[in-house]
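Before relying on records like the one below, remember that each one covers exactly one chain. Contacts with other chains, cofactors or solvent are not represented anywhere in the record.
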Amino acid sequence: MALSIGQLLQKKSKTVLESWINIQLQDDGLKEELLSNQEIRKQSEEFLHSVISILKKEDSQNTESPEFEKAAEILTEISTSRAMQGYTPRETGVFVFGLKEAFLSVLEKEFKDSLVPYADSQKINKLIDALAILTFETFISSREEVILRQTSEISEISTPVIRVWDGILALPIIGTLDSARTQVVMENLLMKIVETESTIAILDISGVPAVDSLVAQHLIKTVSATRLMGAECIISGIRPEIAQTIVHLGIDLANINTKASLAHALRSAFMMLKLEVRKTVEKPKF
C-alpha cells in the first residue's frame, strides 16, 4: 500500500528538518544575535511535527481541526516573538516558505526522475500558503501593538508636567498637538493640578512647529478644562509667526493670558500669586 503524502513526510521528517534548517541558516536576513541555532532547531522541529500532523489528515485545509489550531498556535507564538525582536516580514516569512521548499526538495528526491504528484504538491502549497497568511497577519498585529505602545510611551515622556514653584505648574509641549495627544496633555495636567493643589498652569508651546485652527482649538479646550479645576492657565512661547497665524485665522485668544516666553509667563505667575523674587547682593566683608 502506497504511503500518503503525510506519512511519507513523517518518514522523511529528519531529512526535511535538516534541509529546512539549512535554508534558514543560509538566509542573509538571519539575526544570529537574536536567535541561536538551538532555538531555530527547537522552533523548526516543533512546527514541522504539527504541519505533518495536518498533512496526514484527509482534509488538510480544515482550519478548525485540532491539528491546524495547534500549528497556528505555535506559528503565532513564533511570529509574535520575532516581531517583538525586530524581524522584518520577509525574514519571518522565510521561516514558513523555507518549509515548503524543504518539503518539495525532499519529495523530488524521493520520486527521483518523476514529477511530484500534482495533488500532493497542491496540498502542501495550499497549507503552507494558509499558514504564511496567518504569519503575516500575526506579525502585522504584533508590530502595530509595539508601535501603539511606543507612541503612548513617547506621548507620556514628551508631555511632562513640571512643578516649578509652589502652586505653579509648567507643561512644555514639543511637536504636533493632535486630538490624542491633547487628551494625554489634559489628563496629565489635571491630575497634577489635583495632586499639587496648584492654582496656575503654564502651557509652553515654544516647541510646537506651527499653530493652525485645530491646534488652537486643542489649546483652548485645555485652558477651559484647567479653569474648571479652579486653576488659571498661561500660554507661553507665542512667537511672532505664531501670533500672525492666529490673527490671520481669526482665532480669539483674548480671554487667555499669553506670553512670549516661559520666563515672562513665570514672572506673570509670580505677580498673580503676589510673590516677589529679588536678587540678593552680598555685603562686603570688612
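The chain has two domains: 5-155, 162-272.
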